[in-house]
Every structure is written in structure tokens, then in C-alpha cells.
Specification:
Helix content is 48%, strand content 15%. It is α/β, with parallel strands linked by helices. The strands form two sheets. A six-stranded parallel beta sheet has the order 5-4-3-2-1-9, with helices on both faces. Strands 6-7-8 form a three-stranded parallel beta sheet, with helices on one face. Strand 4, helix 5 and strand 5 form a beta-alpha-beta unit. Helix 2 crosses helix 10, helix 4 runs parallel beside helix 5 and helix 8 packs parallel to helix 10. Keywords: Carbohydrate metabolism, Lyase. It is an enzyme of class 4 (lyase).
Length: 217
């Protein structure tokens, strides 16, 4: 049940903040900023120094379970297992690795592999993936979701990379059930402007929710 509830929480949150940083301190400050902005989904990538320890720290501090804390850029089973032990609510990979999918299934942890082809999307479905990450979405634009949804209307897709405040509506219209936002969300962190990160987070949440509401009319 935990995995199913986590999928529901991810879908309900809609916007997932993809956090990459050169230090633990900056990563945590970004997490705090996007949380203040209303984003509840956090994907801390393994490119952040000490990422597994940061995930553990964030999970231990998340006593009210307000945040959904996941691990991103997970390339192998060893890393996936370490993140799960640290308390990660979900695992995200940039590509489809069957062994990572099997490990996450074994421990009933939500997993979102990256795909850009129908073949990989079908394989993800066969491994029981509930939300499929489309990455790098910036190379294709919203049209890739329309193309994938053609033969696979039953699949749930989450584009990551290339989603902006200006085009988020188009991604939702094309079929996105959630979106992963990285540099477009956290660019303020480069100059230490965490108020900008917070403001941008609030704008993404507002525009995503508005787009979803319009599609449901």
C-alpha cells in the first residue's frame, strides 16, 4: 500500500523539484525554498555530494510527511538500495535499467525510469512502472508526449527537462500527469537568491494546477 499511496502523492503534488547542487548546504537551502513555495515533491540527484546522507537527513526531518523525498540520477542497483535504506520515497533514473526496476519492485518502492521511445515505454509498463519519466524532454518538446500517448494512452508520463513557466500548460495538454523541474526552478540558487527560488516554485505550482484544472473541464 505504501507504494500505491506514494504514487498518489506524486500525482497529487504534480510538480517535482529536481535538485542538483555543488554542496549539501545549497541543496538543503533549495529544498527549504521550494517547500516554502508550495512544492512537495523533491528529487535529490545523486550528482549532489553526499546525496544519500542528505536524503537520510531530509527524511528524518520530514516528520509531518509534508514532503515526498526521492532520489534522482540513480544509475544502478547499489545506489538504489542505498537510497531506499536512507528512506527515499521514490527512485528516478535517467534511463530504463531493468535491474533497478526489479529491485524497487522487490521492496515496493515507486520508481520512474527515463524513456524517449515507445519500446522503452512498453518495457517500463511491463515492469509495472506507474509513472514513466520522459527524459531529456527538452530535446523533443510537448509533441513527444502526444506521440507516446498515441499507442500508449494507458501510460502516465512525467516530462523532465525543458519544462518552463511558459510551456507547462502545453506539456499538461499533451498528456503530462506530473512534471520534473530542474534549472528553470533553481536558477536563483546560483546567486544565492533563494527568495527567487521560492517565488518560481509558487509560480510553477500555480500554473500546473491551473493547467490540470483546465484539462479536466
Amino acid at each position: 500500500m505504501k507504494r500505491l499511496k506514494m504514487i498518489e502523492k506524486i500525482l497529487d503534488a504534480g510538480v517535482i523539484a529536481v535538485i542538483r547542487s555543488e554542496s549539501k548546504e545549497k541543496a538543503i537551502q533549495v529544498v527549504e525554498a521550494v517547500k516554502r513555495g508550495g512544492i512537495r515533491g523533491i528529487e535529490l540527484t545523486m550528482t549532489v555530494p553526499g546525496a544519500v546522507d542528505i536524503i537520510k537527513e531530509l527524511c528524518e526531518a520530514n516528520t509531518d510527511h509534508e514532503l515526498i523525498i526521492g532520489a534522482g540520477t540513480v544509475l544502478d542497483t547499489e545506489t538504489a538500495a542505498a537510497c531506499i535504506r536512507a528512506g527515499a520515497d521514490f527512485i528516478v533514473s535517467p534511463s530504463l535499467n531493468p535491474e533497478v526496476l526489479k529491485l524497487c519492485n522487490r521492496y515496493r518502492v515507486a520508481v520512474m525510469p527515463g524513456v524517449v521511445t515507445v519500446r522503452d515505454a512498453v518495457e517500463a509498463l511491463e515492469y509495472g512502472v506507474e509513472i514513466i519519466k520522459v527524459f531529456p524532454a527538452s530535446l523533443f518538446g510537448p509533441g513527444i508526449l502526444s506521440a507516446l500517448k498515441g499507442p500508449l494512452p494507458q501510460a502516465n508520463f512525467m516530462p523532465t527537462g525543458g519544462v518552463t513557466l511558459d510551456n507547462i500548460k502545453n506539456w499538461v495538454k499533451a498528456g503530462a500527469v506530473a512534471v520534473g523541474i530542474g534549472s528553470e526552478l533553481t536558477k536563483g540558487a546560483k546567486t544565492g537568491d533563494y527568495e527567487l527560488v521560492e517565488k518560481t516554485a509558487a509560480q510553477f505550482v500555480e500554473r500546473f494546477q491551473k493547467a490540470i484544472a483546465e484539462e479536466r473541464k
